[in-house]
Amino acid sequence: MATTKARPDPQKSLVGFTVGDVHYAVPIAAVREIVNPLELTVLPHSPPAVAGVANHRGTVIPVIDLRARFGLARIDDQRRAKWILVEIEAHTVGLMVDGVTEVFGTGGAELGAAPSLGAGDDVRGIIGVARHGEQLVFVLDVDRFESVVSPLAAKGLLGEGSPER
Q1: HSE, side-chain direction, 13 A CA sphere, residue 96
Q2: CA R_g for the chain
Q3: Over the chain (165 residues), what is each successive 10-residue block's mean pLDDT?
Q4: 5 lies in a domain?
């Protein structure tokens, strides 16, 4: 019996992950790669959400701790933790997440409107809501993290995005 090779689903446009008990996603077009956490160097006077910087294949990248950005306590068990490397304003930035779930699509449906949650909406950066199975998944706009990255870039603390993309 011949097996058929699964074809990539062109609708898979989001990379899903968790932070705390909440499911989030970022557009796959912004994702460079997903890596295991690397050694961090903590920078003095950096924004609270910046966990530090890391050397990833010769490029210094800032790493944003989404737990800190969203006001959650740090967790000790980092075995499932991952970094999602995204491109923001010609810089590679790591998003520290509790775990990556899967790559999925919206099944052709439009994203639902982002809920107004009051204070902190700008920090969360939610651009819409997708349904994936029975889960609500909050889709983040990675460009909202530019405000965290730009002060570090202005001080010359970051390398440029990698040309190997």
Answers
A1: 25
A2: 16
A3: 47 90 94 94 86 92 91 79 91 93 83 71 74 89 82 67 41
A4: no
